[in-house]
Specification:
Blueprint (H helix, E strand, L loop, with lengths): L9 E5 L3 H13 L3 E5 L2 H10 L4 E4 L8 H9 L9 E5 L4 H9 L4 E4 L4 H80 L4 H13 L14 H17 L6 H9 L4 H54 L7 E3 L1 H11 L8 E7 L6 E3 L1 H19 L3 E10 L2 E8 L6 H4 L19 H12 L3 E7 L2 E9 L12
Helix pairs in contact: 2-3, 5-9, 6-9, 7-8, 7-9, 8-9, 9-10, 10-11, 11-13
Length: about 475
């Protein structure tokens, strides 16, 4: 007989009776299989450890290691648990047959085996295995695509957040450097003030000017434009020269930035003379600039803290799998994440019930839902329009609506938006899995429902999440 091709399915025949083993081997070969044999359960397990096998024909009653032990070992193995096993046995004990089926055998054939029945059972068992493998491959590919979509979304958010954080971080660094320079100037000026005999009076006048610049009788309003600022600097330089302060161009620029006007310069010069006025005015301007730098630094660091706080809340990094979730906070955190991609011409409207109860769910997964829905709405708006977020309680559910006034979903895809690989975005801008993943998270993970209605000028995605007996939100769910 010609040798079987290497691509033929491999069957392992296990029987301690040599005659039965030989008959089964010939029968299986006739069906086009490459056949391996084992004279007992121990030998069978060694063969399975060394050779790839597509199906096992297994006797139950064998000395040493019987068929039940082989079934148990295969079921416990991650690599063998999906190999179909046909039990070939002459026992009439119904309980033993049932036990073999419960342990993973796909069928039981009595001895002697009918050739036609053997052919059918072999074919059916292998078809089932092929289908399971195809299903596993499909699931693996689907999981890979879903992970790709998740990473793509994360990449878009990360790029935007990097820019969003970098701006205040760079501003804080510039301000800190300027503050360091001004503090050095302040030390120098303070020493000069302390060397004067009238230092106490000088310090009092400066403190009054710094604390209440807007109460000065003729204090200027903040220059509205760069041209106004230049004009104010010119006026201040002229006044400084008039009261005897030499080389006052740099000081004039400092005074203009501190919103100290010509009349205040004249008044202070009248009190202290030109030298004292020069020191006092420079000190006052430096104090005002330091105060402004501290405020700017606080604003920059506060913005960074706000973004990091929203990111922490958005990701739910410190929460268990299921917990009380405030969907309003999730929507707001998602808006923060998407802020770099939110055009100024898009108006965001929030309409939340003040006493909206939490839902029991996975906060991070729900934020993925809000991200996908908001991202799609922004893409639909194309740079301008209205984005409306609603969250209210209705019929035992928390209902979230994401509405935009963009052109709407094309009619040819409106009924398939939740199907995989359906997208209205240009090639390269989406995998077509965002709404499919959204549907799966809402319906399968949270037992909810998601619907869409769309006409030109109004598209609404509606998510319904069932209420559950959960603790009231305490503000710490992020």
């Amino acid at each position: 007989m010609a040798a079987e091709p290497e691509t033929a399915a491999v069957a392992l025949v296990v029987d301690d009776d040599a005659l039965n083993r030989s008959l089964l081997e010939r029968g299986v070969r006739r069906e086009g299989y490459r056949v391996l044999t084992a004279a007992g359960g121990g030998e069978a397990l060694r063969v399975l450890a060394d050779e790839p096998v597509d199906i096992v024909l297994l006797d139950l009653l064998m000395p040493d290691v019987d068929g039940f032990a082989v079934l148990s070992a295969m079921g416990a193995s991650s690599t063998l648990s999906d190999v179909p096993v046909l039990v070939i046995s002459g026992i009439d004990d119904t309980g033993s047959v049932a036990q073999a089926i419960e342990m993973g055998a796909v069928d039981v054939l009595p001895k002697p085996v009918e050739p036609l029945l053997l052919r059918v059972r072999l074919h059916t068992a292998l078809q089932h295995r092929r289908l399971r493998r195809l299903e596993q491959q499909y699931l693996s590919q689907e999981l890979a695509l879903r992970e790709q979509e998740r990473l793509a979304t994360l990449g878009r958010l990360s790029a935007g957040l990097a820019h969003e954080i970098n701006n205040p971080a760079a501003a804080a660094l510039r301000t800190a450097r300027r503050l360091d320079e001004r503090l050095a100037d302040a030390d120098r000026l303070l020493q000069a003030m302390c060397r004067r005999e009238d230092h106490a009076r000088l310090v009092g006048l400066v403190a009054n000017l710094v604390a209440r610049p807007d109460e000065a009788p003729t204090g200027p309003a903040a220059p509205a434009t760069a041209v106004d600022r230049i004009a104010l600097e010119d006026d201040l330089e002229d006044v400084l020269a008039a009261v005897g302060v030499a080389d006052g161009r740099e000081l004039a620029a400092q005074l203009a930035a501190a919103e100290i006007g010509p009349s205040q310069v004249s008044a202070l010069a009248g009190e202290l003379g030109p030298d004292g006025a020069a020191i006092a005015l420079a000190w006052a301007a430096t104090r005002r600039e330091v105060a402004g730098a501290v405020a700017a630094l606080s604003d920059s660091v506060g913005r960074i803290s706000e973004i990091v706080g929203a990111l922490r809340s958005y990701s739910y990094v410190d929460r268990g799998a299921r917990h009380a979730v405030d969907v309003r906070r999730g929507l707001d955190d998602t808006l923060v994440m998407l802020a770099p991609r939110l055009p100024e011409a898009v108006t965001v409207v929030r309409d939340y019930d003040a006493d909206l109860p939490p839902v029991l769910g996975h906060g991070g997964r729900l934020n993925q839902v809000w991200t996908n829905l908001l991202d799609n709405a922004l893409h639909s708006l194309g740079g301008s329009g209205h984005l409306t977020l609603r969250a209210h309680r209705a019929d035992g559910s928390v209902v979230v609506e994401v509405e935009d006034d963009g052109p709407g979903i094309p009619a040819e895809v409106a009924g398939r938006v939740f199907d995989p690989f359906v997208t209205t975005k240009p090639p390269g801008e989406g995998t077509g899995l965002g709404l499919n993943i959204t549907h799966q998270i809402v319906t399968e993970v949270h037992g909810g429902r998601i619907d869409v209605s769309s006409v030109p000028g109004r598209t609404v995605f509606t998510v319904r999440l069932p209420l559950a007996d959960v603790p009231a939100a305490d503000g710490s769910d992020g």
